[in-house]
Write a structure and sequence with these properties.
single chain, alpha+beta, 3 strands, about 50% helix
Length: about 110
């Protein structure tokens, strides 16, 4: 059961930055070229590339090359799965972890 928590930790880490949250918000409107994303921020292109790498590595965002440009979009299936997970852990339920017999290690290393 702890594996499900481990699976989604990468999303929380990827979203734990104001710029990345704003980028995800922008991508909620549809696919965008990196140049359009960059126009909205007071950051350099290498900094944007760093943020996009983190978002893509998490699986929340996908990128595709077209010529010299990269276009980014949210991965709808991954986002829906993450939303379902977040809804599940923030709502009371019969199979809540507090009712589980399994012992968990809360080591944060």
């Amino acid at each position: 059961m702890a594996d499900i928590y481990t699976r989604y930790t990468i999303f929380f880490k990827a979203l734990a930055d104001t710029n990345r949250l704003m980028i995800v918000d922008m991508l909620s409107c549809g696919e965008l070229c990196a140049c359009k994303i960059l126009e909205k921020f007071n950051i350099t292109q290498p900094t944007l590339s760093h943020h996009m790498k983190i978002l893509c590595d998490s699986g929340l965002v996908t990128g595709r090359k077209e010529g010299k440009w990269t276009y980014y979009s949210l991965d709808g299936k991954v986002v829906e799965d993450f939303k379902a997970f977040l809804g599940n852990i923030t709502n009371s339920k019969a199979d809540c972890i507090c009712n589980c017999e399994e012992v968990y290690s809360w080591d944060n290393s």
